[in-house]
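Fig. S4 source data, part A: sequence.
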Amino acid sequence: MNRLNFFQNRPKAQKIDVRAYLERIHLDQEGPSFKYLKKLQKAHLQKIPFENLDIHYNTKIILDYQKVFYKVVIKKRGGFCYELNGLFYHLLYHLGFECFLISCKVWNKEKGEFGKPFDHMAIVVVIDEEKWLVDVGFGEGLISPLKIVVGISQMDYTKYWKIETDPDENLILKESTDSVHYWSKLLFTLEERQLIQFIEMCDFHQSSPDSPFTQKKLITKLTDSGRVTLTDRVLKINEMGITEETPILHEDDFLSKLEHHFDISYQQLTPVGK
């Protein structure tokens, strides 16, 4: 399989600092293995939040992974799928994993259909000739790598996942809480994609009123006992399956809870490099 290497395609770009990245997610470096991949994915989800705050604080998101690295690793921020999965791909590649990027369409509940191509970026990792779906950029999604095999229910901590096919042989990722009733999440293929192909949809999602990311501020991350999620409307803290909600009263209240629960200050929301 041809392994993408965007650093070769863009010779002026420098290799990311793997050690700094691993320090950001509190892990040591190991050789590529499924066990280590699982540790990397969960640690990433616990230490680096999914968030769209740049969109609401007037900072354009550019898919330059030196800038994304600076934002996520050095400034200790988060990002959305194109940033997080793209950056995580670079980490996996430089750790020696065989991996590549794929395009996904996201299921739209309101419209009852899948979205556009390149609506979401995810990663496929190949270990011992088995393919695994890896995603650290969907918010409340997969916690562990999911084996890409059709028709088998797989448990991922508290949820069940299954991959099915449509008449065109596209793969459909479905989610369940009871392993009986499933609903669609993503539609994808195993076609290898390049970074440049995601730029148009990245721009769409940070500028269009039709994008869910322009509708409200959102930041969320996995915790040891559940998940914490903050929007400009509500703070949700889930612990052991029980969710407590607290209304957000105003901008100062949002910023206070942002710093308390995610350790992100208003100063960290200023444009990258300033």
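Fig. S4 source data, part B ends here. The first strand starts at residue 50 and ends at 51.
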